[in-house]
Amino acid sequence: MKTSIPSLFLLTILVSIVCAAWGEGEEDSFPTFTTLPVPQTLPFDYLSLSFDYYQQRCPQLEQIIDQKLKHWFAKDHTLAPSLLRLHFHDCFVTGCDASILLNHEGSERSAGASRTLRGFEVIDDIKAEVEKSCPAIVSCTDILTAATRDATVLLGGPYWRVPYGRKDSTTSNVKDAEMLPVGHESVTTLLELFQSKGLNLVDLVVLSGAHTIGRTSCGAIQNRVYQGLNGTYGMPDPPIDDRYADYLQRKCRCGGDEYVDLDATTPTTFDSQFYANLERKMGLLSTDQRLYSDSRTLPIVNALIQTPSLFRHQFAVSMVRLANIQVLSGPHEAGEIRTNCNFVNSY
């Protein structure tokens, strides 16, 4: 992946500015990295992951994933952002372990937060094809991780190399999925969640930029769209552009079955327009719009608006970091290589 030196320099300056801002009298208002639990995130080479993990045992893996994704994308391009969301839900519950794919009563997949997840059939199709060529070799977790990368590329996003060697979880609990954000949390709450997973403030802002594509249901934004109307208390918080609010109220007047693009300007293009929308008070989710009103995240948002190429570079970096959360790897780690992503193996 090619990265311009000015972009990297800007990011370094940006992080320095944010850290400096935290140190200037804001200790009482905002938690800092030193006051939140920050588990160590080891580089992937210490996690028994490697780029050539399947080079000898399943050299055709990435070709199979690429071909299958192009096939599904041709039929339904909305599956690409769905895979990004599926991967995010998997990693943010118990780590990147494909526990979200287990399909049984009481699993994460049965949680209310998982109700609108899509793309399971894509992973199943890829897994079935991989099993024909490389039986019991490639984990569902690695397939989901690589498929998410390729889906991002199909949307016009950046490419990054995926290190392999993850194992699949043998457990999945519906209660674990209840910790996922639902779209109205504060920046502090989100930052605490991200840091508990070994991610940082830049990762929070940049990974939120995945909302440059995809949709959400009208039901998920009722409070944001109708706050202050029909006798409800107060004004929208965070604020929302009047014309955009009017559009959303008309779009969602029939209830929660309608869907709204997360990026109202360029909904099918992977770009940094998402951040420019925040500047115009057109963040669809409250959690997104708060990135522009919080003094910790605002400098990062502004930098991504001013230098769009910075978003592409850092998104790839943050996605690699995301895929390393609580990975099961190595000969002594618990976990298995599921032959069917929906069920644990029977021995």
TrEMBL record:
One GO cellular component, as annotated: extracellular region
Site (described: Transition state stabilizer): 85
UniProt: Ca(2+) 1 binding residues: 90, 93, 95, 97, 99, 108
Residues of the Plant heme peroxidase family profile domain: 48-345
Compartments in which it is found: Secreted
Entry keywords, A to Z: Calcium, Disulfide bond, Glycoprotein, Heme, Hydrogen peroxide, Iron, Metal-binding, Oxidoreductase, Peroxidase, Secreted, Signal
Reactions catalysed, as given in the entry: 2 a phenolic donor + H2O2 = 2 a phenolic radical donor + 2 H2O
Segment forming the signal sequence: 1-23
EC top class, as a word: oxidoreductase
Cofactor(s) for this UniProt protein: Ca(2+); heme b
Binding note for cofactor: Binds 2 calcium ions per subunit.
Residue stretches spanning the membrane: none
PROSITE patterns (UniProt xref): PEROXIDASE_1, PEROXIDASE_2, PEROXIDASE_4
GO MF annotation list: heme binding; lactoperoxidase activity; metal ion binding
EC number(s) given by UniProt: 1.11.1.7
Domain of life from the UniProt record: Eukaryota
Disulfide bonds: 58-134, 91-96, 140-341, 218-252
Family: Belongs to the peroxidase family. Ascorbate peroxidase subfamily. Belongs to the peroxidase family. Classical plant (class III) peroxidase subfamily.
Function (record text): Removal of H(2)O(2), oxidation of toxic reductants, biosynthesis and degradation of lignin, suberization, auxin catabolism, response to environmental stresses such as wounding, pathogen attack and oxidative stress. These functions might be dependent on each isozyme/isoform in each plant tissue.
PANTHER family recorded: PEROXIDASE 6 (PTHR31517:SF17), PTHR31517
Protein name (database record): Peroxidase
